[in-house]
Structure formats: structure tokens, C-alpha cells
Amino acid sequence: MARLADYFVLVAFGPHPRGSGEGQGQILQRFPEKDWEDNPFPQGIELFCQPSGWQLCPERNPPTFFVAVLTDINSERHYCACLTFWEPAEPTQEAVCSEDAAGREEEAAEGGSGRLSPGTSGPPGQLFAPKTLVLVSRLDHVENSLGLIYTIHVEGLNVGLETVVGNLLTCTIPLAGGSQRTISLGAGDRQVIQTPLTDSLPISRCSVALLFRQLGITNVLSLFCAALTEHKVLFLSRSYQRLSDACRGLLALLFPLRYSFTYVPILPAQLLEVLSTPTPFIIGVNAAFQAETQELLDVIVADLDGGTVTVPECVHIPPLPEPLQSQTHSVLSMVLDPELELADLAFPPPTISSSSLKMQDKELRAVFLRLFAQLLQGYRWCLHMVRIHPEPVIRFHKAAFLGQRGLVEDDFLMKVLEGMAFAGFVSERGVPYRPTDLFDELVAHEVARMRADESHPQRVLRHVKELAEQLYKNENPYPAVAMHKVQRPGEASHLRRAPRPFPRLDEGMVQWIVDQATAKMQGAPPAVKAERRTTVPSGPPMTAILERSSGLHGNSARRLEVVRNCISYVFEGKMLEAKKLLPAVLRALKGRAARRCLAQELHLHVQQNRAVLDHQQFDFVVRMMNCCLQDCTSLDEHGIAAALLPLVTAFCRKLSPGVTQFAYSCVQEHVVWSTPQFWEAMFYGDVQTHIRALYLEPAEDRDPSQGWEEPAEEERSALDVASEQRRLWPMLSREKQQELVQKEESTVFSQAIHYANRMSYLLLPLDSSKSRLLRERAGLGDLESASNSLVTSSMAGSVAESYDTESGFEDAETCDVAGAVVRFINRFVDKVCTESGVTSDHLKGLHVMVPDIVQMHIETLEAVHRESKRLPPIQKPKLLRPHLLPGEECVLDGLRVYLLPDGREEGSGGSGGGPAVLPAEGAVFLTTYRVIFTGMPTDPLVGEQVVVRSFPVAALTKEKRITVSTPVEQIPQDGLHLRSCTFQLLKMAFDEEVGSENAELFRKQLHKLRYPLDVRTTFAFTQGAAHTPGRPPRATKDKGPSLRTLSRNLVKNAKRTMGRPHVTRKKYSPPGYEHRGQAPEDQEDEISVSEELEPGTLTPASALKPSDRMTMSSLVERACCRDYQRLGLGTLSSSLSRAKSEPFRISPVNRMYAICRSYPGLLIVPQSVQDNALQRVSRCYRQNRFPVVCWRSGRSKAVLLRSGGLHGKGVVGLFKAQNTPSPGQSQADSSSLEQEKYLQAVVSSMPRYADTSGRNTLSGFSSAHMGGHVPSPRARVTTLSNPMAASASRRTAPRGKWGSVRASGRSGGLGGDVGSRLAGRDMRGPPQANGAPPDSGFPRPQRAALYIIGDKAQFKGVRPDPLQQWALVPIEMFEARQVKASFKKLLKACVPGCQDFESGPTFLRSLEDSEWLTQIHKLLHVSVMVVELLDSGSSVLVSLEDGWDITTQVVSLVQLLSDPFYRTLEGFRLLVEKEWLSFGHRFSHRGAHTLAGQSSGFTPVFLQFLDCVHQVHLQFPMEFEFSPFYLKFLGYHHVSRRFRTFLLDSDYERIELGLLYEEKGERKGPQTCRSVWEYVDRLSKRTPVFYNYMYAPEDTEVLRPYSNVSNLKVWDFYTEETLAQGPPYDWELAQVSPEPPEEERPDGGAPQSRRRVVWPCYDSRPRAQPDAISRLLEELQRLETELGRPPERWKDNWDRVKAAQRLEGRPDGRGTPSSLLVSSVPHHRRSLGVYLQEGPVGSTLSLSLDSDQSSGSTTSGSRQAARRSTSTLYSQFQTAESENRSYEGTLYKKGAFMKPWKARWFVLDKTKHQLRYYDHRVDTEIKGVIDLAEVEAVVSGTPTMGAPKTVDEKAFFDVKTTRRVYNFCAQDVPSAQQWVDQIQSCLSDA
């Protein structure tokens, strides 16, 4: 029984203590005055009576009623029914508000005038104070009683209020059971109170139906999910009663879960800060305070009045799992709107009688009840009975539930199961013996029906109505038999003048009535209705919520059969059979059924908890277990790890007598073992099995180890046993009860000890000295700082704290494995024992025991580890050492890894066929230059192939950590994903023996090498250097000042010069020629410093003194200068004075890099422009890159200029200005004027192709491309907005050539210009689709003398002046960042990185998305346009971006297409040196060579240029002297940082580092090539790999390639790779393949068969199957060697054959250029240090040198003239018989270890590149050979034991090779020096 009401309280308005305008509530009276013992008086009632605050009103409002809910400290809810009415305020109350009365009255007058009725009582200005009657009850049905009390007061009924209140407080009613009670409070009233049938079902009245009406289905579902997943929910409404109803309705929907967080349906205004609490809540607030709720960021706000639910952006409400979400939605719509189904019927039935609101309420609740039954179906199968007595302790196995329902990934259910509401559900409803309710019946018996009804809406609706009937009956068990009779006040009674205020009640009288009733109650027997308790039915076993097909790994019976067969083979010892089946088994084990099958099969082979295996069996079993466990998540939702746990402690092998290794030591690397939740679930499962066994008859018991299987139907489950025991419990004697409690407690305790052992087995690594366990596992990684996050949320917080406090600062100790494991086990033991009710004594004993268990196990493991090391290791392939370049050093030695397959499937047995060479097992090496993988395929069928994949460290573009499975053991391992811009990809998994520290070290070293702090620490600088990287090299002592010093001073001066006109420089004497190198290549790289400048200006060339000539000489030798002289663009005569007749001159204005740092020192400018004007011109251009000439057409004399983009104040401003500048012009105006003069000078420096009026007008470019728009004479802007549309008409001519192998596309001798498209000749129609020549002509507009090509954005709003002789061509080009983005996509398309990348359309789609070919098209298109303009006689200025990216691409391509010289090897080198290196393309910045450039990323501008050249090469294969391999070689090495050529961003920076004019005197011994050109030259002497045999140029040929995307091909540089040897661009490495392992090397040299299988991606086909010419040349060389003749250079043979073939094919002697038959003697005349270059232009360069130079230094210092024919390319090498013995003599040589010195006859052979030695001079038998290719250095030596005594110490020298160090001694010091010089010269020639 329960009291109807606990307290009656009268609360009135009172003054605020702080004297503010608002009042506050005061409790006038409360009854009873003493608190009930079982129910103390709730605090804060005054606030909840008036939630909006206590305020006086100017009128008498009608009474209001609502129910507030207060929750006490014990989570008990108290319902406070509040009835508020208004009485005239007393004078004291009015005085409270006097201070702001005026304002209040105004407000009242404005706001309340409409509400005042004529009958309002009280004089004007009368205020009314609120007074509230409050009834506090634990029952939710008390409203009538307050109304009765108010009626008695208002109507003045003759009833004592004290009697009514006293009766109200003493009335008792039964709590539940469906009883009906009629009560009277003594005022002639009769009230019928019905209690619900079942107390557990909530009472909702109409609240749920109202909630749906206010908010709608979707919003209510959102709130439902939000409340279940513990989000904050806030209701807003102006009605307090609606707030109460909405909150009540939402709670009713959550049944059977109980909401356990903050629940305040009506929150008072004073407590609004509660909304900022971090915990979840359901709160209602008056809508008047909506503004205060605006800044709440994580609160879901439901506006009941407006019908909206607002979810903040940062809150994610997980939806219900499908299909439940959609099913629930549709059923709710059928309930709420039954006519929806009939809306479309042609003849709708008569209107359906819709349910009453109360009935609809129950129907809606029934829908949610069904939803919970479907969600939680089978939950009782996942309950673990941990204890039965004295109280049941039950745990829920969350992972098993999610796994079996197939909802592991479902966010909603996961959050619900982890929530507090579900924890309460388990503890309340998990009890096996208790009263049941509707939900228990539904979840046990109706699941099958609900599943069957899913597709039948009407049956679902019928079921919903049945459930609704039961819910309605629960709330209203009896129909209204007796009628309520409660008096109500009359209409508008509140407006009548009240006779008196509410009276003060007599406390004594009320108390007397209460005491009387209490005494009567004590005497009466308790009328408690006995609860009917039963065993709760479990219902059918779980099924997945959505039946899914098993997909890829559908475990058919065949797969399970394979697993069973393999295991039986293993245990029968048939290892070969098992090995064959193993790959299939590992694949099958991806499926769940196969994993369960494996566990079951292995269980059959365990006898008495032990199974001893031999080594092979053990390895197989462990491998299969690892494969099973690798896919287990940390939750182990399918119970696989749980099934294997008893097995890993059962299978073992004997290592030695007394030492046994168990399987657990080999399966520890899985995340599941370090998850506390897994261990808890396992522990509780085992405890349940043993507790059940306690109470079962022995015959009924079963093997506890089989606990992971689902119990059979006929067996009694643990819950059934527990239910029976709970039923019998009250009947047992106290002793028997104690005995059962102790038995259960000791069972739990013994299991805790057992699990402490099990956990130590699986957590302690075999080698306990390693700390990798701690750092690598997810759970244990945080052991030292573990917090409650490791413990399930159901755990009490205090337990988790117990072992945390001691471990706050232990995180630094990484190797305390034992301590970490002890702490982990202690936390586990703490938690489970506290939850399972283990006594504190036992718990203390366990804590003492755990460290001993761990220590004991560590000692056991030490012996196992020691013995396991003695086992013959598993045959892992021997690590293959990679071959390194000279000077390349290993930074990290081989880390054993697996190279996994990526998207390029050709090498993995894909489209190209052949065996799968990947995955491969081997090692990754990190050197100062490369990342190298060498290994062998894991597939035994592939054979002994060696797999090599490498790339330069500098090419790394992406590095990502991944977790992948190793191909063999299938263990998840750390891995790395490395992608390089040389289109290589290393996707590696580290072997288990590689610790995480080593893997991390590898990453750090890789990053350090990829992004060095300074360019000087890169491989190009450090290779072969004796000093350690980063340390400056030792300064060599030299008589003259070193060039490096000069370079440094030069740069210092240049820095000083920047922006300062008055500069004085110190005078330097130039270095003598004896300090300069001998090789012609080296001579380019020299500089000396200019004399001091005259103050006021930068020195013009004419002002140079004669002593300045040496200053210029080094600049003149730069590549660009040689090219200018070849083109006839200006000379510097011997007196360095200008030849006035020439239109252009070489200006040294920038020789100190003062005007533009990124330009070269010497520039070509118009003859008429003074040097001092150039500085002002440069200000108009970005980066000061003003227009300079870089090429001149030999035929039309038009020039090509380049510059940076224009500043706004540049030429565009000039064109915009309509008036001439005023006399007081600004500096900008003067710059523009200078610029105008400059452009005018350019125009006047070229031959005129103007019309008779002298004015040049616009070409027909725009008319051809602007849709017939003919420009006016003023419009000089030419547009090329879309290069695709602008592939304009062309006309072929004898000079032009369209893309083909031969010039078959040429038309006959029709004459006319090829550039007619832009030059205004007769044209032949619009262009064809692929850019081929057009057919018909366009009109003939005039053309300009100079076209300026610039970005479209620069030329906006330009109105050019018709008097000017230049025209603007605005074009839209891409930017560098677009190149970067495009390249990233191209890289992903060509090197996808994931194996399931399908070839074909996917590759092509990715290629298209990258837009790489579109950019190539644009470049080629613009270049062809410029070529045509130049060919037609108009000059062109390319002025794009900053002038160093796209400008460089375009001008380089234009020169390549226009000038055949640049298509030779020498010419292409010159082009790159001139346009890319000298003109300051930012190689370091674009290649991200240093740490500073890391953020900018890799932007392959130069690679894009090479791709364009490759496209042209494909279309014109006979026009290029170099092969496609040459382009790939440059593409690879421009990013590799092997050579210094492509480092740094400009000549200025190269000087600053002392690179450009390096001291050649520093070179001692053989040098690695520092320049890529030097390397190409050396290599070209040995092999024709860079030479194009199809080269048959036609002089003066201009190329015009097709540029449409359909004509472009993907460069095979991006897609091909060679896994046999790695990239073929480091030629030394490609010659030798890595050695096979020693054991497997065949005995005795060559294989018997010469047959070889070649397959793509693995082999380099050009290398494996060379072309016929290379093959013939090799054969020729072999035959010459066999015949004893010194082999001739390949080029001499080739030229001889070519010349002979040309003569045979030309009987009349005409038709071939005579230059092809010129003899192979180099054409150059030598004089004293001066040579004249004979070129086609005829310009000469003569420098008078100082007479004191040695003539010896000039013989090799001369340079070859511009090439007159192809035959002179490689003919520098003369072969003579004498070269066979270049130098010979006697030397003493020390033998190998412990051998004496001996005199031998040594022969240095430059031809064979070797040093041979014989016993004496006439001996013919060679005693030994030293290959000079292996020589690293020749250094001075020291005498050792046994050396000749009489010889000077300086006569000793050592030769260091890659194999060993040879010690030599000459007869005297001069001969020793002679030998050293000879060997070094031989090395430098190689």
C-alpha cells in the first residue's frame, strides 16, 4: 500500500531577500510538519511552483494546474501537482515592487489590456499575488484532490479544509495489481482510483499521441534515438502541462529501458544553468526562455509549439538499423493516419472510425514495444549468470549479441548496449525468476510471428491493436463502474471578489487526523498482494536482423571439407598433402563458419587438455590459428578467439627435455588478447559453466571446455538452473544457504586464479626483455596510463581507480613488461571479483598471487625462448645484398619485409601472363641515394627469380603507415606505403622480426634523407666524399686565390649590389689557367669577378677596361653564350666593344646578378638599348625578368623572347593609357616609357615585314578563331581563349613537317608560308579535327612585327594604340599548382597502390580525370602557334606567369620544333642548360629537394616538358639524334639528386654554393660524375643506348606535331617497370643483377641451356632482346676481342657503315647532304688557348689570353664547333694500336694477407680499362687484373712490413677498389707520381 499524497504545501508570494524587483516563493504551511521516515520532504518546491518566477499581476488570472517532477538523491521521482490562483496583494507585498512599479504597470497596461474584462475586481492599480497549492506524491494521479480544495475555498462550501487535507494525507491505495479503490475526502465527493495491472509498464494516458501530433513521426523517431543514445534533449513550450506530457510520453516510448539520467520536465528559470551540464538529460523549459538556450552547442531542441526538432551540426544521432527504421516508420504512419492506405482508391470504403486519443496513444506505444522486441530478440541467450546466491549477478555478452545479430557495425545498437539504460535493463530484467510482463511475453513468444508478418501490413496492424488493447487494459483495468463525483468551481469564479484570502489551516487538527490514521494502520495487517513470480522464458535463439548472403567467402560444405582434410593430414603426419591444401585453407578461413569448424576440429585432437605435436605439425597449427585470429576484432563478436583460447594452452611441442613450448607463445600478436572486455566475457562465460555444473546432477553435466558451443535444446540452460535455485532459496535452511554462497564464491575465486594464469600466458611475450608488446598492441599500449576507458562502462568507478593511482609516472619505463602485465591483470581481477562478490580477503590474496604467477611464467618463458632460438630457423630466404653505386652508402641495413602486390598486375601473373612475382619476401635497404627492395617471390612456383624495386630517396612523394597481413603467416603487421615520382611504389609489410622501433627508425631516416636541411647534404654532394656529410670539405692549399673564394665574394658583392646604384667593388685578379681543369666540359664552369663599377650606373659593356676581359671570359663560356654565338645573336670582340652593325648585343649588365637573380650573367638585348635603362625596364616584370632574346630564326630572322609576366604598371598600363605622359611623370610612368622604348627597340632590331604604310597590323588569328569577328584597325588584342578550339589552319611547305615517320604529309612545291595561319597568307579552310592542315583559305589580314603572348588575366580591358607595332595574344594556360594536382592523379592512375584496381576503363578514366594529357595538348598547341608566327617572320615574346615554368616549357619546345640543332644530343643538352638551368627554372623548389620546400610539394614542370618532347619524338622518330631512353633517363635523374646538374634554382644560387665555377684542382683520384652531361658523355663512349638509329634529319626542317589529345600517347616511362633489376637508369647497376643465394647457385659457370623466358614487368625487354643494330655492334666487339684486335668505338663502326650505305644507295652522287660524308676527324683549329668556332652563322669568338699560360693546358681545352653533321658526334675518340699498352713499368706490389712484397711488370690498358700485371716484361701469361671500373680512389700510401728498404716513403701509393686495397711501391718518387697520374687520367676518361 502507498499514501495517496505525502505532503500538502501552501506556497505564497514573498519579498526577495536581496530587494530586487522579483519576489520569491515562501512556504506558508506544510502538512505534516515532520518528515515521513520513508520519504523526506523534497527541497526547492518554491522554485517549481512558479517556474517562470514569482511576479505580481495587474489582473486576476484564472487558476492554472500542472505537475512538476522532482527526483531525489535515491533517484525516486516525486510528482508535485501545483494549482496556482491569484489573490489581491497585501500592502507589504505591493511595497516590494514599488521601486519598479511604474515600469511594470506600463507593461501590464500594454500587454494585458486586452485580457481585462469588465468584471475584473479591485480598484485601478490593484495588484494580484500568486498562491500555489502543492500536493507531493509518489503516485501520478492526484489532480482532482487539489481542485476540490480550491473549490471548497472559492465557493465557500461548508466543509473544513483541515478535514479534507488530513484525509488526503492519510488515504492509502494499493500500488499495483489492478485494484480499484473508491475514496472520499469528506466533502461529499467520491473518487475512483484504479492502479495499473503491472507496475513495470509505464502509464502514458494520452501523452504519446499528443507528442506525435505536435512533432510528427520523423522528429519523434529522432528524439527516441537521441534519448537512447544518451544525447541531451530539451523541450520548449509555453504550456507547462504540455512539457510534462511530452517528457512523460518520451519516457513511455523508451520502455522496457528506464531513463536514468537527469529528468526535469519543467525546469525553473533560476536553474537554467543546469542546461550546461555535461551529462545527458531530458528537460522541459518554458518557450519564453528560448533565447537563453541558443548558445547550447550539443543540445537537441524540440519546439512543441512550432513542431520542429533542431539537431546541432556537432551532434550525430545514429538511426535505427535497417530494415527496422523503415518498417517502424511505415507502421507509425498507418496508426496515425489510417486513411493514408485508402487515399488512392477509386471507391473508398465508408470512413473508418479512428481510434480515440487514448487508444491511439497505446497503439503508438505498441509499435515501439514491437520494435524493442525485434531489436533485443534473443538477448537472454547472451546473459551470463555469474552468481545465483545470495543475489543474482548477471552480465550481458555484448560482443556475442552483436555478432550473432549481424549488427557489429551498427552505431545505434552499439551505443544502446553501452548505455546506462541497458545496464539497468540487464540488472532488472536479466533476473531469471521474477514477475513477467508484456515485454517478456513478446520477446519470448511473438518473435516468429513478427518476422512472418513483416511483409503483411494489415497483419502487423492487427498485432499492434492487440498489444494496444493489453496496454490500455493495464492502465484502465476496470470500465467506469462507479462515476467520479468531485465538485468544481463555477464559471469565472476567479473573477468574483473573493470573500477572503486562502485561510491558514489548523496544524494541530491536521496532525491529529494524520496520527489517528497512522495508529490505525499499524494495527491492521499489511494488505500486500503477493507477487506472482515465474521463470522468465528465454525465447528462440538469436537470428541475424537481416539475412545476408555470405558473399565472397560463402562457406560451402566443400570449403569446410578442405579445412577438415587439412587438419587430419596434419595430425596424420602427411605434411606434403597438408602443404598443398594450406593456401586453400587460409583463404577459406576468411569465413566465419570455417573458423568455427577449425576450432571444433582442433578440439577433437586434444586429450586430457594436452596435445603434443612435432615441429612441423606445431607450425601448421599455429599458422592456421593466426589466420583465424587475424580477422578477429577486439570484441571477438563471433567467439572465435574464445573457442581458440583453451586450444592455445593445449597444443605444444617439446623443445628439449623439460622444456615445452605452447601455442600461445606464437599467437600473441592479436589485438583481441589485450582487450579487457574480451577477457571479462570469457571469464563470466566460464564462471557460468562452472556455477551451472554446481547445481546440475552429475549425469546432466557436460564438459566445461565445450562452453563455447551453443547449448542443445534438451539441456537446461544456466538461466533455468538459476531460476529453479532462486525459487528454492527461501525454503533452504540458513546453513545450507551459507554453504551454497561459499561454494559459488570459491568457484569464482578459482576461475579468477585460472584467468590470471591464462592472461599471463597470452600477454607476456616469449622474449620478455622486448618492450614491443607494450607499444604495439592497442590495449596494452596504454597500460601505464590506462584509465576507465579500458573497463566496460558498467563497472563501478571506484574499482578502476584502485590500481591507477600507483602508475601515474611509469609511462617512461618502456621495458617493464612484467609490471605492465601485472597491472593489467590486477585491474581485471579487481573488476570481475568486485562485480562477482568475491570476499575482500580472497581479493587481497589474488593481488599477492598475481605478481608471483607472472614472475613464474617469465622464468618458464626464458627457458622456452632460449631453446626456441636453438631450433633450426624456418627457412627464410637469404637476404640479397643490393649493388650500390660508387659513393653510395647504406644508412639502414636490410629490414626483412614482404613486398606486396599493387595495382600493376602485369608482374603478378595478370594481363601479361607469367607467374606472379609478387608478393616477394626480402629486405628493404635505405642508402644515401635510394630505397631498395631485393628479394624473391613467395610463390614457390615462380622459381629462383630475384625481385628488385628501388627509387631515389629524393623522388619520394608519399609515405603512409598501413597495417597489412603478411602473405605467408597471415599475421597483421605494420607496413609502409611509399610512392615515388619516378613511378615506383613500395607497398611493404614488415616481418615480425622487425620491431616497431626499427620500422619507426626507418621512417625517420627516410624522412631525414628525403628532406635534408641543406642541399649540400644531398647525395650529389656527399657521394664519394671522404668527409662526413654536413661537414665542410677541407680547403685545398693553392698558390692562387681559389675559385670558390671568388665565387663567394662574387655573391657577396651581388647581394650588396641589389637595389643600390652606387657600389664600389674590390678588385680581384683572375685566376691563372693552370688552376682550371683540363676537360672541355669543365671549362664551361668557370668565372672570375668584374672590376669595380663606375659609380652611378651599372657598367655598360663599352665601359669595360681591357683588364676586365678575363672577367667576361668565364661567363662567355657558359652554354647560353655559346649558343648565342651559334645563332649570330651578338658577339663580344677581343676588345669587348660593340659591333654597331649587329641588331643585338650580349650585355653583361646582369653579370653580378644585380638586376635579376634568376637570369644568367650575360643577356641578349637590342643594340640600341643602354644597360642603365634595363634596370628600369625590369621593374615592370615579375621577378624582374624583363624580355630578353633567347633564339633567332636563321631564315626569317624573327626572334623569340622570354620574360616574366607583366606587373599591372607594365605594358598593359602602357596600352591602357590614352594620353602621353605629363612632364611631371612618376617613376612608374618612366618605367613604362622605358619599357615602350625597349619593345620599340626590339621591333626595330629585326627586318621589317611591314606593309607600305610602315604600320604593322594584326594577324588573322582572331578572325580565324573568334567566330568571324573581324577586328577594327585599333583592336590589337589577339585571343586564344581555348587552345582546343584554336588548332588553327595550317599549310604545309617544304620546310614544314607534320607528324609521321617520313614527311609523307608534305604537299608539293606550292610555295607559301607554313605560318600562314597567323601570318595572313592565303589559308585553306578551317582546321581539321586532329589539327591537320586545312583546306580552304581565310581572308588576309596584316600581321604585327611582335606578338606578346601572355596570361588572359593580364590583358583585361586593354585598348591598344594602332601606332604600336606589337599585338597582344591573351591565352588561358594552367598554373604550376594545377600541374602538381594533375601529376598526383596521374601517379595514382599509373601506380594505383591497391590490388583490386581493374585495368582497362578504370585506368583510362583515371588518366582522363588527371587532365595530364590535356595540359600536354595545351603546351604543344601554343608552341606550334609560336613556331608558325616565327616562321612567318613575326617575332614573339612569351610572357607567362613568373617566367620560369610554363614560359620555359613553351620557349624550349618552340626552339626544339624550329631548330634541328636542338634535336641532336649536344643541342638538347645546350637547350636544357640555356633555357632551364641558366634562365632559372626552380628545380629545387619544384622538386621539394630540401626541408624548406617540403610544404610546396613536387611539381614536375620539367618532366612535363620531357613528356612533350617524347610526344614529338613519337610523331617524328627520324628527326632526333637521341633515343626515347635519353628522355626517360633525364626524367629519372632530374629528381634523383644523383647529379648536381638539376639542383638549386638559378645560376646565382649555384655560384653561391661554389658549384657553377667549381675548382677543378680539388679533384684527386677518380671522380664520380657530378654532372649528368658528363655521365652521358662517358656512357655514350661505351654504349649506344642514348643514340637513335633511325636518325636521318633533313636540314632546316620545322616540326609541327599534332597536338590533339587523341594523337597523344601515355609515356611508357610512367607505366613500365623492371622487377629483375630495378629502374635501368643507373647504368652501372643495371649491368649486374643481384646474386642468387649461395646454396642455390648452380655449380660451374654458365647454364646448359641458353634459352630464357622473358615476361613483361619482370624483365626489361629492350635489354633482354636488344634491337638488331645493338646486337650486331655487340657481336662485332666480341669478335674483335676474340681476334685479339683492340675493339673500335661503336660510333666509328656505325658511321662507317652508314656512310657506305649512303654511297651505295646514291649512284649519281646527288641528293644527300654532303655533311654526312665528311671524315670523322673533328673540325676545329687549335691555337694558343683560342679556338674559332665554325658554325652555320659564321660568327666567331676570339679571346686573347695572357701569354704566360702553358700550352699543355690548351690542347684539350678547346671546344668543338657547332655540329656540322651527325657523323662528327662521337668521333672524338681515335683508336690506335698503341692504346693496348697505354703505360707500363715495374712496380712492387704487396700480396694478400701475410704475403710478401714482389716486383711485377704492370701494364695500364686504357682500351680494356684495366691494370694487368705479369711476372716480368716478356711474360705473356697474365698473373692478375685490376678492373679500373671498380677503382674508388688512388691515394698516397705508407710502407708496411717487408717493403723495400731503400725506397723513399713518398714512392708508396694505394689503389682502393670495391673489393680490397692494393699497396704499390715505385722505384722512386717521380715514377710513383707518373703512375698515379696515368691511372687517374685513365679513370677520368672512362
Question: How would you describe the overall organization of this protein?
Answer:
By secondary structure, this protein is of the alpha+beta class. Helix content is 35%, strand content 13%. The chain is built from 57 helices and 44 strands. The chain has a seven-stranded antiparallel beta sheet. Strands 41-40-39-38-44-43-42 form a seven-stranded antiparallel beta sheet, with helices on one face. It has a five-stranded antiparallel beta sheet with strand order 3-2-6-5-4. Strand 8 and strand 9 form a beta hairpin.
Distance between the termini: 110 Å
Poorly predicted sequence stretches spanning 5 or more consecutive residues: 98-121, 547-555, 699-714, 771-779, 781-815, 1026-1047, 1054-1111, 1133-1138, 1215-1226, 1249-1296, 1299-1340, 1559-1566, ...
Q: Could you tell me the number of beta strands? A: 44
- Count of DSSP-assigned helices: 57
Query: Pairing-aware structural class of the strands and helices?
Result: alpha+beta
User: Percent range for helical residues?
Assistant: 25-40%
Describe the largest sheet.
7 strands, antiparallel
- Give the overall shape, derived from the CA principal axes: elongated
| Spatial order of strands in the largest sheet | 25-24-23-22-28-27-26
Brief account:
The chain has 1886 residues and is α+β, with helices and mostly antiparallel strands.
Quickly list its features:
single chain, 1886 residues, alpha+beta, seven-stranded antiparallel sheet, 44 strands, elongated
